[in-house]
Design brief:
By secondary structure, the chain is an all-alpha fold. It has one domain. The chain is about 70% helix and about 0% strand. Helix 5 crosses helix 7, helix 7 packs antiparallel against helix 8 and helix 15 packs antiparallel against helix 21. The longest helix is centred in the middle third of the chain and has 34 residues. About 40% of the residues are buried.
Length: about 500
């Protein structure tokens, strides 16, 4: 038995049946949410009926001037699809149809509108005389996002198997994602599904060590949502680990460090490039060729960031700007997801405080991964760590001195790998150094959602963090309190799915 077979091969082989089951759950969850949308739309009168109003594009080439002309075969079906274009979906469809016409539309990044426009003019173009062009745009958005969600769930499962080393636990985490409390947004014309798909895919390839391939996925996630640029933190974390390893090896340290840092900087630049390019695009369209008197205020700034200005000017986003008494209901609406996020962060930090305090620099990821795998094998009744090390000494270790050193490392690391709390629920098989960047990522997102953003958006903003589902699946499998936690978590998800599909689809406020 080799190190590779111990750490990776077995979980991936055992994950095949779970993949097929997860695919059924993912498809069923989307059909369930879409069914709820249709039911609520037919039973409840919408709060705002202006969603179907669609004035002609400002440009000469327009398809919206007469969306339901005499050639449309099924105008009622087209109207039903268009009535489902609510809230931010209106912006995405308008951009796909007419481009970026107004300043506030630049708050929505271009990947989703581009994909919708492409599908409507190719795959679904034959449906235009049947339901109308705007309905085709809406249909393209619905199909695209629901398919992206299914692929996102599959990528989350593959990522979870790699990190958790437990296909059953990874499956439970992925099923939780399929029925997460922000499900209504993943089945609507929002950028959440596309962003989750690209982020989970990038994280999976990052975990497999293909940083350059992961960079492409992370860069595309930055084309879907602005917080996609935060994924550059994973690349930075990997470079920090490699620099630390280079200094410990003391072999050509300075040249190797420079090479590592340059490669990391290039990857981060690629991840930031889509967002920076979009800001430059907005500056060119709005500011260039205008006199000083005609320029918008942000055009004259030392660093003209259109996105920040839009968020602040049109939506009132800013540090502590949402801390008002009248916003207390929105804080209550976001409190469940913020509570789960904080609990997940505290949970993993308390399990391995030494690792998190040292930012994972205390020991290499490979060593800790070996320790976790050997400990997990021992807990399953398989050969002990000492025997496994001696049997595989020809493949893993070079000499007797290395064996003694590695055994000593295992004894020291048992204190780190085992939960530090006396009431801990189970011995986790995952690598704390691998978990660390996900904890840091979620921590930054929680702070941003609570202190800067409209806090009710936290439900969908944090829903693309794998750590939430890993924590929930860990805690639900714990003996004793696991069942009570399971009921509570599923009740929360179910309540928000029903409440969200009712309110959101009828143009009532919801996150």
């Amino acid at each position: 038995m080799t190190l590779k077979s111990v750490t990776t091969t077995t979980p991936h082989r055992r994950s095949c049946p779970y993949t097929r089951r997860l695919l059924r759950y993912a498809v069923a969850s989307r059909l369930f949410v879409l069914t709820l949308i249709i039911i609520w739309r037919s039973l409840v009168s919408p709060y705002d009926t202006s969603a179907s109003i669609n004035p002609p594009c400002l440009t000469s080439s327009t398809n919206s001037s007469n969306p339901h002309g005499p050639s449309v075969l099924l105008p009622r079906v087209g109207s039903a699809i268009e009535n489902g274009i609510v809230w931010d979906s209106v912006y995405f469809i308008r951009i796909a149809e007419c481009g970026y016409e107004y300043e506030q539309t630049y708050a929505f990044l271009p990947l989703l509108p581009l994909c919708i426009s492409l599908l409507s003019k190719t795959v679904f173009a034959p449906l235009e005389p049947v339901v109308g062009y705007r309905a085709v745009l809406g249909l393209s958005g619905y199909i695209l996002n629901n398919l992206a969600f299914v692929f996102a769930s599959l990528y989350l499962f593959r990522l979870s198997v790699f990190v958790l080393k437990d296909p059953e636990l990874a499956f439970r985490a992925s099923v939780l994602f399929c029925f997460n409390p922000a499900s209504i947004f993943y089945s609507s014309i929002y950028s959440e599904s596309l962003y989750a798909f690209l982020s989970f895919g990038g994280m999976y390839h990052f975990m497999n060590g293909t940083d350059y391939f992961a960079t492409v996925w992370f860069a595309l996630s930055g084309c879907a949502r602005s917080n996609g640029v935060l994924n550059a933190g994973y690349i930075c974390y990997r470079r920090m680990q490699l620099v630390n390893k280079a200094f410990l090896s003391r072999k050509r340290t300075y040249w190797l460090t420079l090479k590592i840092l340059l490669a990391g900087a290039l990857c981060c630049l690629c991840i930031f490039a889509p967002f920076i390019s979009f800001q430059a695009f907005g500056y060119f369209n709005i500011c260039m060729g205008r006199s000083a008197a005609e320029m918008r205020p942000w055009c004259k700034a030392r660093l003209p960031l259109l996105y920040n200005y839009i968020q602040s000017h049109y939506w009132g986003v800013g540090f502590l700007r949402y801390f008002r008494v009248k916003q207390l209901p929105n804080f209550l609406l976001a409190s469940p997801i913020l509570s789960v996020a904080l609990c997940s962060i505290v949970y993993y930090v308390k399990l391995w405080p030494e690792v998190f305090l040292s930012l994972g620099l205390r020991a290499s990821s490979l060593q800790k991964g070996l320790v976790c795998s050997l400990l997990s094998k021992a807990t399953e009744g398989q050969p002990s760590t000492d025997g496994l090390l001696e049997n595989d000494s020809s493949n893993i270790l070079k000499d007797d001195r290395s064996i003694r050193l590695r055994k000593g490392a295992i004894k020291r690391e048992k204190k780190v790998i085992q939960p530090s709390e006396s009431g801990a629920h189970e011995r986790l098989q995952c690598d704390p150094v691998i978990i660390l960047p996900f904890v840091l990522h979620l921590s930054f997102m929680v702070a941003t959602a609570f202190f800067v953003m409209h806090v009710q958006v936290a439900t969908r903003f944090l829903s693309a963090s794998p750590l939430l589902y890993w924590f929930a699946s860990h805690i639900m499998r714990s003996p004793g309190i696991g069942r009570r936690w399971g009921y509570l978590i599923w009740a929360y998800c179910g309540a928000y799915i029903f409440l969200g599909s009712l309110l959101f689809s009828n143009f009532y406020p919801f996150t």
